[in-house]
Amino acid sequence: MIKPSKVVFISQELEDSFNELPSNDFLKKSIIRAIRDLNRNAFAGIHVPKRLIPREYIQKYGINNLWKYDLPKGWRLLYTVTSENEVELISAILDWFDHKEYERKFKY
Question: Can you give the pTM of this predicted structure?
Answer without folding.
Answer: 0.93
